[in-house]
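Protocol step 4 of 5: obtain the predicted structure for the target chain.
Materials: sequence only (see below). No template structures provided, no constraints applied. The aim of this step is simply to have a reference model before the mutagenesis design in step 5. Sequence pasted as it appears in the construct record:
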Amino acid sequence: MPIDAAKALAAEPRTGEITWDQKDVQLYHLGIGAGVPATDPDELRYTLESRLHVLPSFATVAGAGSPGVISSLSMPGVDVDLARVLHGGQALRIHRPIPVRGTATATGRIAAVYDKGKAAVLVMRTEVADADGPLWTNDAQIFVRGEGGWGGDRGPSARLEPPTGAPDRTVERHSREDQALLYRLSGDYNPLHADPEFAKVAGFERPILHGLCTYGMTLKAVVDTLLGGDVTRVRSYTTRFAGVVYPGETLRIRMWRQEAAVRVAVTSVERDDSPVLADTIVEHS
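Step 4 output (structure tokens):
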């Protein structure tokens, strides 16, 4: 079996220095659709260096995502085919606002391995801190199709009760045909998002948008719509990737206000509201 759960969990964490600057932040923001309209003052805080604020989901790519999901798939105890890999979910906790430029230490390890029967789930945790202390903690849930069934722990369920009542706000955000090509320049070069032949081998009709691109687009919509554009109010952001997005599709983002939180559901407009993000919560101050 390509995944040895005990060996993966016992592996030494990978630690490395990461750096980022305003160009990395601007590129990430453009990759998730910021800058439309280009002269809108609310968009300039994502694109113009003199006004720049950092959307917290930038943490998923800072330092090119190092140690990174793809590199973690080659850790001891893990040897899998990328064509069988799907990003199942993401959880981000922000300890302090992310600076426009910085140098920090990123420590990555496999925090859990679950047996879902037809798939294995790896929880890859990255903790990042600079000289002033912790900055953020990222947990990526990675599904590896065909690698379950060894009798291991199934792990907790990520499913939540759906929000009730009509959403407080609904917005639509269009993705560009070249959105995945632009987003991948922030560090995720998985060919699933660019190479048509690789996408077909993986079971898709054409390359799909990165789940983390949809994740960033959604957080930006919540911040801009319900948090007054204040990126520093975000405390945590958790989602389950319920379906794919093809570049060029439109996201329908529904939001429900809760106490110190926003529940979110995201669907694809062009595919009859097919689910994209589910069990999504943005906790805020």
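Step 4 remarks: The beta strands are 14-20, 85-94, 102-115, 119-130, 133-145, 169-174, 234-241, 250-258, 261-268, 274-284. Residues 68 and 208 are 19 Å apart (CA to CA).
Proceed to step 5.
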